[in-house]
Design a protein that fits this description.
This protein is of the alpha/beta class and 215 residues long. Helices cover 38% and strands 16% of the residues. The chain has helices spanning 2-15, 38-41, 52-65, 89-92, 134-140, 153-166, 183-196, 203-212; strands at 29-34, 72-77, 119-123, 145-151, 170-174, 178-179, 199-201. Strands 1, 2, 3, 4, 5, 6 and 7 form a 7-stranded parallel β-sheet that branches. Helix 1 packs parallel to helix 7, helix 3 packs parallel to helix 8 (203-212) and helix 6 (153-166) runs parallel beside helix 7 (183-196). The longest helix is centred in the first third of the chain and has 14 residues, at 2-15. The radius of gyration is 17 Å and the shape is globular. The N and C termini lie far apart (42 Å). The relative contact order is 0.19.
Length: 215
């Protein structure tokens, strides 16, 4: 499907001035790892799927970032037991009510090696920015470039990518570092993110930039 279909759509967009150009990197990056919590990375959980490839790629990215003192920020989606903080989303996606704060399902997948120096943001909705202190934190760190990773491509990654642009951050999405429960929504949303909001790049390209980065 994909190559021929998206090539035609890409040409269609280009003819109308949508996409085709790059935002590029700024001067101060941060890595944002969206919702790679056990509730999403454990396939036995209703919201989970096999994201081993994504976790492995994110580990590689984080490992490269640490010697450069690039901040690593994790988000997790979690709710109080009374679910009053889940709003209408619990009606649209009932399985989300299982993401109870204090359970293992809101814990960051231990394979990612989160440290005490990393930042954890608890969110209630799709975007990492919505109703959280993410933007204030990035401002305090003078970050201008957000390397966006995690899950899911069609949901929280997409919503955060849109907001990153709207808040004025250079958004970079390493394609190996994002994933979804199904391939079709993953591919379609990755295409759309790249055309409209962020630069979708190969992980090795991002790693090369990090290698050359001087804090």
């Amino acid at each position: 499907m994909a190559a021929d279909s998206f090539q035609k759509e890409r040409q269609f967009y280009l003819e109308r001035g949508v996409g085709g150009s790059k935002v590029g990197f700024g001067k101060r990056p941060a890595i944002l790892v969206i919702d790679l919590q056990l509730g999403f990375t454990d396939p036995t959980f209703p919201l989970g799927s096999n994201l081993d490839r994504v976790v492995e790629s994110c580990c590689e990215l984080i490992k490269a970032a640490r010697p450069k003192n690039i901040p690593v920020i994790f988000t997790t989606c979690g709710y109080e037991k009374n679910l009053k903080d889940a709003g209408l989303w619990k009606r649209k996606s009932p399985s989300g009510a299982l993401l109870q704060l204090g359970t293992k399902w809101t814990e960051i997948d231990p394979r990612l090696g989160k440290t005490d120096d990393d930042i954890l943001i608890i969110k209630k909705y799709a975007s990492g920015f919505f109703g959280t202190h993410l933007n204030a934190t990035l401002n305090s760190l003078a970050v201008d470039t957000l390397i966006i990773t995690g899950a899911t491509t069609s949901g929280c990654v997409r919503a955060t990518s849109v907001d990153a642009l709207q808040y004025g951050y250079c958004g970079i999405v390493p394609e190996e570092c994002v994933g979804d429960r199904a391939e079709l929504p993953h591919m379609a949303n990755l295409f759309d993110i790249g055309q409209k909001y962020c630069d979708v790049m190969k992980l090795n390209e991002v790693l090369e930039w990090i290698q050359a980065y001087r804090p």
